[in-house]
Amino acid sequence: PWCGVGCNSVEKKIYVHLNYTFPCVRLLNATHQIGCQSSLSGNVGVLHELESEENLDWVLTSGPNPPYMVILESRLFTRSIMMKLKEGSGRVAGVVVVAPNTNPPEGFSPHTACPNDNSGVYTENYDPTLAHCNATVWNPLGNGLAYEEFDFPIFSVKDDNDTRVIRQCYQDHNRRVNGSNPQFPLCAMQLRSSMSAVTNTATCKRRNDINFSLTPDRVCDELGDFNIWASSRPMNTTTKGHKEFESVVIAAARMDSRSFFFDIAPGAESTASGIVTLLAAAHALRRATQEAPPNRTILYTFFQGETFDYIGSSRMVYDMENNQFPLDLDNIHSVLEVSQVGLHSDSKLWLHSDPVSRKNSSVKEEVEKLVNGLKSASAGLNVSVDEPDVSQPLPPSSFQRFLLARPIPGVVIGNYRSSFTNRYYESMYDNAEYLNVSYPENMTSEEQLEHFPETVKTLTEVATLVARALYVQAGGNETQLANITADPQIVNQMLYSFLVRANNSWLQQLVPTDFTNHLADRPTNFYVGVIQYFSEPTTLVQYMLANMTGSVVNVTQEDCQNTLAPPLYTYMWVQGAAPPNSTEREGFCVRSTVHRSIAVSPAFELHEYTTSNYSTWTESVWKPITGRIFLVASHDLEMLTLGVGITVLLTSLVLTYVISSKADILFSSGREPTSATY
């Protein structure tokens, strides 16, 4: 109903809603579920700010008003504390983690110590001595927290206005004074993140197939998106399977990352450094591969979903094996994968290869050739490269899925020797700050795009190294190497777009008009997501790669969008830049060899939801995710209020009955005479 200008919602007077919350959500695979959830209506608990691990006793044992909603500073968001809260979950309603404005110096990785264990090449069947990270623990700081299951909600909030409101409410109503227990009313919080899926992927997929209505509800969706790939020369994509006389060198990088919390996956070092390096290398090779084409084709490949048991790479290998891709495995000459390559002080690049396949003399020869090519390409650059012990296994990498199919020569290049140097692997702290990508605060966005942080210079050198090595590996003439140099301007623009904000003038020129609304004023979220929804990094990489490797063709927008089509090229109309003193952009048509291929695990194609051969990760569907704080009265007062209310109700019912039964007496009046006149 309408009310006057001064009318205020009663709900707004009772609750303060939290605007910027990031939940932990539930994921499932073939064997179990991980993540967090609340009850259907949300979990409610009295706020308690944990000051130290010793202070846990108040929450788990002695506090008089359980269950508690625990506020954690990021330094207390550790495996030790979280597992104790999990064990005492009867007294824990939920957890709120306050994300700091600066990264914790001690490092933090909620991923496992052995990423993608059991889904790579190193199993008991391949080489038992190398399985399960027996030879080297790649992520020593990994505490596995992101792979635990919690039966209460866990949210992250930024250290901003929301956090100040929460803390003020706690200070005013819940903080103990001189050792005495706080008095009612107390500040409470409700967190709602109800998940629909339970148990494992097989269970949730079976429930998806149960149709009791015309519009059945799904309970989970498979993780996945698209791989992006482009070839250095045109390739007929309508014919699938083996191509005669075609030999390709795959240049690979991954496109995804994750953290403990949904929608926060900055992936600066773990993902963005590799993407930017390979894109810049592809850009540096554009002219050389056109003017002096090497004997072999370079296939720039960006895999999606690699964090979750190599979704993208396993699907591409599966498609190649089943003639569902324009190439097959026989067409692959070798692989060069760009892993984490953000160089910090006194670090170098390490060239990793597989010791098992190197026992094959022809594979060994080609690997040594690729390693020597990388070492030679580093000459004259401020980048030092080296090779670890040849008996050491490969790090977690997409290349492992190709080796599972057959022995293929390949090298994985990274900034680590026997364990990741990334102290924030797969966490919300693997951000621009960690990669030293920062800009003076007084700069405008345009000025920042022209300002080169130190990381830009080092990644430009790495991109030049990769480009030259790829050209030689593809059979190119070494006399061309001096002309192959990465552009620091391009590197800076890409880093800025991925790690600071995608909504900038440079990237706006490279995308179609209808995509500009998707460019966000925040860092890119590299979480793979589910196949039903738009993926930000995939689309950004697609448009960047097209502009880096393609060419402008002089056709109209209509011809570009409708008439021109594969099999050799793809065409896209991008909005271009606006000339000075004009708001009308000058769009143009980009012709490229960029394509998308499905990046959904073969397990879902085969309906094998319990397989260990492929990724089976799904994401639960959930109800609306919300958080709010409010004041709660004591239980005794609530019971008293309820009792008084019931008493008033019963009394009113009795009075109503009595009055109704005696109505003819109570409300009777003398009858007027019929002859009365007025």
Integer average pLDDT: 93
Q: Helix count, per DSSP?
A: 18
Q: In percent terms, what proportion of residues is strand?
A: 15-25%
What is the makeup of the main sheet? Answer: 8 strands, mixed
Alpha-beta content class: alpha/beta
Number of strands: 23
The strand order across the widest sheet is 1-23-9-5-6-7-8-2
Distance between the termini: 45 Å
- Low-pLDDT residue spans: none
Shape: elongated
- Fraction of residues in helices? 25-40%
Query: Oligomeric status of the shown chains?
Result: single chain
Radius of gyration: 31 Å
Organism: Gouania willdenowi (Blunt-snouted clingfish)
Family: Belongs to the nicastrin family.
Membrane topology: Single-pass type I membrane protein
Subcellular location: Membrane
Structure in words:
This protein is an alpha/beta fold. The protein is 30% helix and 17% strand. The protein is built from 18 helices and 23 strands. The model has no long low-confidence stretch (mean pLDDT 93).
Task: Lay out the secondary structure.
Elements: H1 10-14, E1 16-17, E2 21-23, E3 27-28, E4 33-34, E5 43-49, H2 56-62, E6 68-73, H3 79-87, E7 92-99, E8 154-158, H4 161-173, E9 186-192, H5 201-208, E10 220-222, E11 224-231, E12 248-254, H6 268-291, E13 297-303, H7 311-321, E14 332-338, E15 349-352, H8 361-377, E16 385-386, H9 399-405, E17 410-414, H10 445-450, H11 454-473, H12 488-499, H13 505-509, H14 536-549, E18 551-553, H15 557-563, E19 570-574, E20 588-592, E21 594-600, H16 602-606, E22 618-620, E23 626-632, H17 635-661, H18 663-666
Helix pairs in contact: 6-11, 6-12, 6-14, 8-11, 11-12
Family: Belongs to the nicastrin family.
Transmembrane segments: 639-659
Protein name: Nicastrin
